[in-house]
Design goal:
This protein has 372 residues and is of the alpha/beta class. Helix content is 31%, strand content 22%. Helix 6 links the parallel strand 8 and strand 9. The longest helix is centred in the N-terminal third of the chain and has 33 residues.
Length: 372
């Protein structure tokens, strides 16, 4: 039987143990607000405004240019050629042009873990995941998945495609049927923050409200807003009424530049207020050969230095199937002249020259940042 002194010591030890438990519990509870207040924790936002979180850590860069090209399809006959000649084959003639800049393409393919890659003639465009390394090695930095082939391998492989690009250091954005957190990407051109908004309208067109919410959210954290849009009618060299209607809507919402793809041919260039619209850049890499128009595309370079400008550079794969190259000076003059004739008359001289002055983008609210 314990003495009175032993009982007292036991009670005291028990009491100290309880105090320690309560103190530990209190410390755990005090940790919770710290976790909840982390600045980059995902939060719920309205549909259309669910923009990819942006941090202040995007660095100022020495890169001051962004190249954009149209449809890039690396399956079917292109896939067969790469299997024989190497995954670098399609890019060999343009690699040196791209290196040192950001490069954005419309990726009309999907990576798959399960598909048997026989590249048969079809309208599904699966690609070996190892191809992503070749894209990165040849300067591709950004890809849009807002098109009608991003789901060719199914929803699960759309997520796999994003993961593959992330692993190779390529930023993918846009969704084939949704407008939301995956639709917007950001990059820095010097001190200028550019928002890239991927949009696909062939299946369904987002409402004006959804577009407005997305664009306004992007505006709040960027200096320039570009819409990279999959739209229009295939093989038609004029913009459709539906394209023009959406372009006017986007211009009214304050977008700076609209760049289109999907028609597989180059379409006109025009200015709507303070918005520049390139309705279609045409094909860049594709296994279509039935006309000169589908083997001729437009690569455009957005520059912030020495001044805000857009350079127009025709490309062709005529005589070098699936391997685009810059056109010769004679062909460039001819192709830009033809494009100028069917584009906005106010831009005719600039299109012929190959350079469009974008100083009108530097409004009073943007010029302080853009001109630094």
């Amino acid at each position: 039987m314990k003495s009175g002194k032993e009982v007292v010591l036991s009670l005291l030890a028990f009491t100290l143990m309880l105090v320690a438990i309560f103190v530990a519990a209190g410390m755990e509870n005090n940790d919770e607000p710290i976790v909840e207040s982390e600045p980059h924790r995902a939060v719920s936002t309205p549909a259309g405004a669910d923009i990819k979180p942006i941090t202040t850590e995007l660095p100022v860069t020495a890169t001051s240019s962004l190249w954009m090209v149209g449809d890039v399809m690396l399956s079917r006959q292109v896939g067969e050629r790469m299997a024989i000649r190497g995954a670098d084959f399609p890019w060999k003639a343009v690699r040196d042009t791209f290196i040192g800049s950001y490069v954005l393409i419309n990726f009309e393919s999907c990576f798959s873990k399960n598909t048997i890659f026989n590249y048969e003639e079809s309208f599904r465009f699966p690609v070996q995941p190892t191809v992503a390394d070749a894209l990165a090695d040849n300067g591709i930095t950004h890809v849009s998945l807002a098109n009608n082939h991003a789901l060719d391998c199914g929803p699960q492989d759309l997520s796999f495609t994003r993961a593959v690009f992330t692993e190779t250091g390529i930023d993918s954005f846009g969704h084939p049927v949704e407008l939301g957190s995956s639709s917007v990407s950001y990059l820095m051109l010097g001190k200028t923050r550019v928002a890239l908004i991927g949009l696909h309208t062939l299946f369904a067109e987002p409402s004006t409200t959804e577009l407005s919410e997305t664009i306004e959210a992007a505006k709040s954290v960027s200096d320039i807003q570009m819409v990279f849009v999959h739209w229009g009618e295939e093989y038609i060299e004029e913009a459709s009424p539906r394209q023009r209607q959406l372009a006017n809507t986007l211009a009214a919402l304050g977008v700076d530049i609209i760049v289109g793809h999907h028609p597989h041919v180059v379409q006109p260039v025009e200015r709507i207020g303070d918005t520049l619209v390139l309705y279609s850049l045409g094909n860049f890499i594709f296994d279509q050969y039935f006309s000169a128009a589908v083997q001729t595309g437009l690569a455009v370079r957005f520059d912030i230095k020495p001044s805000l400008a857009l350079t127009l550079q025709p490309v062709t794969s005529i005589g070098s199937q699936n391997q685009p190259r810059l056109t010769t000076s004679t062909s460039t003059i001819s192709l830009l002249g033809a494009l100028a004739k069917r584009s906005d008359p106010a831009l005719e001289a600039e299109i012929r020259s190959g350079t469009i002055d974008l100083s009108f983008l530097a409004t009073s609210t943007k010029s302080a940042i853009i001109t630094q």
